[in-house]
Amino acid sequence: MSRLEQQTFDRKITRRDLVKLFGASAVAATGIFGASNKAFAQSAAHVVVLGGGVGGSTFAKYLRFADPDVKITIIEQYPEYITCLRSNDVLVGMHTLDELTFNLDTIRSKYNVNVIIDKVVGADFDQKTVRTQKGEVVSYDKLVVSPGIDFVYDNIEGFNEQVADTTHPHAYKAGPQTLKLKQQLENLPQGGTAIVAPPQNPFRCPPGPYERISFFAEYLKKHNPTGKVIVLDPKDRFTKDVPFKKAWERLYGYKTDNSLIEWVSGSDGGQVTRLDPKTNQVQAMVEDFQADLINIIPNQRAGKLAQNLDLADESGWCPINRHTFESMRHDEVYVLGDSTIADAMPKSGYSANSQAKVCAKAVADTLKGESPGRAIYSNVCYSLAGQNYGVSIAAIYEVRDGLIQPKGDSAGVSPITDKPAQPILEAVYQKNWHREFVKDVFS
Question: Can you tell me the distance from the alpha carbon of 250 to that of 88, in angstroms, rounded to the nearest whole number?
């Protein structure tokens, strides 16, 4: 830990301190790992990583920093990975999917990591092996799983995976559905109505639906000013709701007769219970709604791989040791990212990145025969309420009373001020942060 980090942790931490300290992941990581790169040079163990997204790639890279000699293998189903980070931008033409697409070439060559492009179909935790669809059996000493999320459709009648893939894309996993939803927004008739239905907690990227709602409203303001976005939400509160709603007031006339956004909370009957994909009608708890575009984001659970490998419990998520992210269900197996039960820590790319770094150090310590140190995690999330209007949330987390909880006063969201430059600067920070973040993960 660098002297700046130690001083920050030892005193009362403010949100401003956190953004200064962790705004660029690579800088923070260098301070944490730079002094111990040579400490584990005698290790000859084999660590296998399932999943080459944010969690898996970060883990492999930072395990290599911690142990120059350990053998590392990533098994990833797809040769390319599209980040969900900034995928909402694609809906309104701020980015293309190509700009959000990465591969494991640098991780493979720069950090001496073996990469297998194949689907994992099973594991034998007693024999410490994993099996791939092509028939390869890979042995491990430690197994790390970063499986992402899976979607749950059974709470909304008429909505299922086939409907999402064909006529009503949720677009909450970046890819073809993102482009389909973009086209539907562009084809919305003048004066038309779009419905966005966020999921119930917990789910990946808690601010994501509300950034999307904001982008829809901004698009309508420019191209379809008599249109409207109706938000049917099963919740009464959402992440960064205070600065988001202030932005909606300033930008889109929220709570006025001419508002581009109408938000229906769970207490007001916002939970969607049924979709008729043929008539574009949804039934909520109190009334039915007709729309030209319906974007239902499904409830979520741990990724299919976690389910198949018996890493999730009855909650649908994966219980872990809060200090190391080792699975509570299988020894010497670690689970990272969105699939985990991480208490107050949100399911975000930054969280997965932070968890992976702590886990990498814990695995390296364990392979050396040492006890892992004290875990400190972080999360910084920038969202856009408009292309030039940013809102953010940040926190440092510690394990306290058996749970991952914010440390001191570190947690906070964008303050609401009358300074016009503040949201503009936060939008700039968001764009710069993403560029540096994906470098830290994949470069």
Answer: 21
Rounded distance, CA 228 to CA 217, Å?
7
Type of residue found at 56: G
Q: Going by C-beta distance under 8 Å and a sequence separation of 6 or more, which residues neighbour residue 191? A: 224, 226, 227
Lookup: tokens for 433: 């942060």
Helix, strand and coil in the chain, % to nearest 5 = 35, 25, 40
Rounded Cα distance, 341 and 327, in Å: 10
Q: Is 111 left (phi over 0), alpha (psi -120 to 50) or beta?
A: alpha
Report the candidate in 259, 188, 258, 203 with the shortest Cα–Cα distance to residue 233: 203
Distant-in-sequence, close-in-space partners of 422: CB < 8 Å, separation ≥ 6: 414, 415
pTM recorded for the entire structure: 0.90
pLDDT in tens, 314-365: 999 999 999 999 999 999 999 999 999 999 999 999 999 999 999 999 999 9
Nearest to 168 by CA among 282, 293, 298, 283: 293
* Residue-wise pLDDT tens digits, 40-70: 344 479 999 999 999 999 999 999 999 999 9
Q: Which of 296, 88, 306, 354 lies closest to 205 in space, CA to CA?
A: 88
What pLDDT does 430 receive? 87
Residue 84 near residue 208, CB atoms below 8 Å:
yes
**Residue 100 and residue 97: Cα distance in Å, rounded?**
5
| The token pair that represents 210 in the structure block | 């509300």
- Integer Cα distance of 281 and 323 in angstroms: 46
Q: How many whole angstroms separate alpha carbon 306 and alpha carbon 205?
A: 19
Question: What whole-number distance in Å separates Cα of residue 135 and Cα of residue 133?
Answer: 5
How far, CA to CA in Å, does 373 sit from each of 1, 4, 150, 420? Answer: 11, 19, 32, 43
Please tell me the predicted confidence (pLDDT) of residue 140. 98
Question: At residue 392, what are phi and psi to the nearest 5 degrees?
Answer: -140, 165
How many whole angstroms separate alpha carbon 164 and alpha carbon 186? 18
- Cα–Cα distance for residue pair 415/407, rounded to 1 Å: 19
Euclidean distance between CA atoms 220 and 190, whole angstroms: 9
